[in-house]
Write a structure and sequence with these properties.
Radius of gyration: 29 Å
Oligomer: single chain
Strand order of the largest sheet: 15-14-13-12-11-10-23-24
Distance between the termini: 35 Å
Number of helices: 27
Length: 795
């Protein structure tokens, strides 16, 4: 079965990657087939048959994301709620299916957000609604080295904020009935427990995850326990283990006469399995039967079926069958991080346990039994961590060093105490129609203690370390090294793994004396990373807080580059789309000093409070201030003492006009960062003449109409202009008139909403520009495209 599943997986993978590496894949496939054919003709034909089946089946099942033109203004929307509406911080979020926009059918789902306080009744799954909403496409950041989840994978093609919502009817059905019970259970949990405890119980019982605050998510992620915050194979596996053991123990307590009758045809273990499976099915149903949940249920069901048939040692075949069924159901699951982590963890654990020498438990003393248990549990957690490490680092930019310890201590508490206690309590409340959970004080105490304990582990220095992205080649070499360790007992078998880890660790430190400037795609906001020739790092602005740019873009990008310390953090001016993401940066990266423009805005108070709290030195800069080394110079051109814009557009424009304007010069190359200055500040600095002249300009105020005046553009005289702007923003940035002013002067334009991140690399006065697309694999139309893709494997 293993060979069949691997062949099927290869077929799926070839379908995905053949357009990217046609020559390489066909050559490798031909060589592999010939080698296997020479060894075993029958097996080679079977492998080829299932490989072809995987390729053709995936081709038949694959559907591109539908392209949808959304209205650029508020629209009337009708549809049916198809999931449990959840409330967090007063905002109601709901997923709508069977959507029509202004009478036109949308082939997909929409995520809506509304003010819960304005609802006469909280909607339920199955409700038919009419709403007035301004829709936009899902926010998908485009930055090299940073993973961004694409909601279109769940069929969500748009999202929007609701200004009016009315329930016009209701649809029945089993799924809606189950979702409404999940919603009712969520309300019961909220009434019974403290907010943090309730959020964890809601996540692992009814599968409602929106209530978990970001601090708890960060703590669980840093300690390698993120898998506990959503229903996964860990929950199903350990709950099944606990139920199986309890039921079998109860059966063995039956009187001998009854036990003899029960076991005429089936063993106590088989009876335990038959009684455990319905409970797991019930758990899967009440938790929402999400794709990861169903995947976990399939894995456990296959294993328990093998156990029922007396094939306990056939774990690898069971895992292969489970993978085959899941991929038959959804071939694209092969490329989902949850699938990869689940199967890699189980495979790693199975291989380690298989190699452990069997012990005679009857000959053990109690002390020996405890030592054996601790050794086995430690090996299980360590093998799972090492088996998934490359993908954890690649997707989440960190390696939880403390994970073996926390999984050894915390996972049993969650899965053997909190989960079964919460499970029994929740179902009792639902069945008896109670308004609060039985044992709620006990559950709240244990859950609250567990969350605090995770927080304490997370606060330990180096509990989790942030690491740069491993290249695709290094990931392949890592797993080949692991296979070598598993298959051989040679005393030097660990050497290849050590070499791979060494190459990975030294990679960020191998660089030339070049300057690299990245204008990040943070949506409607600004954030630029400057890696200076002497190794120092400057960050100018951090993007908006609303889209959580600091957590989702800026910090992950820095970590992907191996950057854990910012030498100079610049806040051009204290507006939310510039300082918002910096709150996360100040909490999670070391900052040497901060440069400010001297303007205080009350809305930005959290930023200034964080500077004081963390005792980070700061400087208020004025025109004429500069910072220079032998390789580069940074010059401040604006503002200056006494400047006041007095804009007729009011205080917000005055604050924009107070933005820091700085110029970076390295040899013959120069780039201007003018913040959000508008026409008043632009006119005020025109007399600086040659000091404004720059090769590249980051366009002021996201390409707004009031900025980028003709005189200012003429004074800067750039060859290239880069606009940091969010797709479909409500400000209509960049404005058509501003764009035309640059184009009339022959300036080459880049936009982060279309091009993604823009990366400028300069050395010896020469510069080159790449965009996000240049760091992505492209469909091959000639040999050079495939060479480009092959080079990215080393990147």
């Amino acid at each position: 079965m293993l060979a069949v599943t691997l062949s099927f997986i290869c077929g799926i993978a070839i379908h995905r990657f053949l357009p990217l590496f046609p020559l390489s894949i066909l050559t490798l496939a031909a060589i592999s087939f010939l080698l296997i054919y020479r060894i075993n003709r029958k097996r080679a034909l079977i492998i080829m048959a299932f490989l072809a089946f995987g390729f053709i089946y995936t081709w038949l099942r694959s559907e591109p994301y539908p392209e949808t033109d959304l209205p650029d203004r508020g629209s009337s929307l009708t549809g049916m709620i198809n999931d449990v509406p959840e409330i967090k911080d007063g905002t109601l979020s709901l997923t709508v299916d069977r959507v029509s926009i202004n009478g036109m059918r949308l082939d997909g789902r929409v995520m809506l957000f509304a003010d819960a306080q304005e609802m006469n009744r909280i909607p339920e799954s199955g409700d038919i609604i009419t709403a007035f909403v301004r829709l936009k496409r899902p926010l998908i950041f485009k930055n090299p080295g940073v993973y961004t989840y694409d909601p279109r994978r769940r069929g969500i093609l748009a999202s929007g904020s609701v200004s009016f919502l009315r329930i016009t009817g209701s649809a029945g059905g089993l799924r809606n009935a189950i979702n409404n019970e999940r919603q009712r259970l969520g309300w019961i949990i909220d009434r019974s427990l403290s907010p943090r405890s309730a959020s964890l119980i809601k996540a692992i019982i009814p599968g409602l995850k929106r209530g978990i605050d970001k601090g708890v998510r960060d703590d669980f992620s840093r300690t390698g326990l993120a898998h506990l915050l959503s229903i996964s194979g860990t929950h199903f596996g350990l709950l099944a283990f606990l139920l199986f053991k309890v039921v079998r123990m109860i059966i063995r307590l039956f009187p001998l006469r009854i036990l003899n009758r029960l076991t005429l045809y089936v063993t106590p273990s088989q009876i335990s399995i038959l009684l455990t499976m319905p409970v797991l099915l019930l758990y899967a149903g009440i938790s929402g039967a999400s794709i990861p949940t169903i995947r976990s249920l399939i894995m456990i069901s296959i294993y328990m079926t093998a156990l029922f048939m007396g094939r306990r040692d056939q774990w690898l075949n069971s895992l292969s069958i489970a993978a085959f069924i899941i991929l038959l159901w959804n071939p694209s699951a092969l490329f989902e991080i949850s699938f990869l982590l689940s199967f890699l963890a189980v495979l790693s654990i199975g291989l380690v346990l298989e190699r452990m020498a069997p012990v005679r438990e009857e000959a053990e003393t109690r002390r020996e039994g405890i030592i054996r248990y601790l050794k086995t549990a430690s090996l299980i957690t360590l093998s799972a961590v090492l088996g998934t490490a490359p993908f954890i680092i690649l997707y989440f930019k960190q390696f939880p060093i403390i994970s073996p310890v926390t999984n050894l201590l915390i996972t049993p508490i969650v899965c053997f105490v909190i989960l079964p206690l919460g499970f029994v309590s929740c179902f009792t409340a639902l069945i008896l129609g109670l308004s609060s959970l039985p044992f709620n004080h006990l559950i709240d105490s244990i859950t609250g203690f567990t969350i605090k304990l995770v927080g304490l582990f997370a606060d330990i220095p180096f509990a989790g370390v942030h690491l740069h992205n491993p290249s695709h080649l290094l990931i392949v070499l890592y797993y080949l090294s692991i296979i070598l360790i598993v298959m051989h007992n040679h005393r030097l078998r660990f050497l290849p793994l050590g070499m791979v880890i060494f190459l990975f660790l030294i990679r960020p430190h191998i660089h030339g004396h070049e300057m690299r400037i990245t204008i990040l795609d943070v949506g409607q906001g600004d954030s630029s990373v400057i890696e200076l020739p002497d190794g120092r790092v400057m960050l100018i602005d951090g993007g908006p807080q609303g889209s959580d740019a600091g957590r989702r873009v800026v910090a992950p990008y820095l970590w992907s580059r191996g950057i854990g310390e910012i030498d100079i953090l610049v806040l051009s001016h204290p507006h939310y789309d510039h300082y918002g993401g910096l709150l996360y940066i100040l909490d999670n990266l070391d900052v040497g000093e901060v440069w400010l423009n001297g303007r205080f805005v009350e809305d930005a108070l959290p930023f200034f409070e964080k500077l004081v709290e963390k005792s980070i030195p700061y400087r208020i800069l004025r025109r004429g201030d500069s910072f220079s080394t032998g390789d580069y110079m940074i010059i401040i051109l604006h503002p200056y003492d006494g400047f006041y814009a007095d804009s007729e557009r009011g205080g917000f424009s005055d604050e924009n006009n107070d933005s820091l304007v700085l110029k970076i010069q390295a040899g013959d190359f120069s780039m201007l960062f003018p913040g959000d200055i508008e026409s008043e500040a632009e006119r005020d600095i025109l007399h600086l003449g040659r000091w404004l002249r720059s090769d590249i300009i980051k366009v002021p105020h996201h390409g707004g109409k009031i900025s980028s005046t003709p005189g200012f553009i003429a004074s800067v005289d750039p060859d290239v202009a880069i606009i940091s702007v969010g797709e479909g923003n409500t400000f209509n940035h960049p404005h058509r008139e501003a764009i035309e002013r640059y184009l009339r002067r022959g300036v080459r334009l880049y936009r982060t909403d279309r091009d993604g991140a823009v990366i400028i690399t300069t050395k010896d006065g020469e510069y080159s520009i790449k965009t996000y697309r240049d760091y992505q694999f492209k469909e091959v139309s000639n040999i050079y495209d495939e060479i480009h893709n092959l080079k990215l494997l080393y990147h």
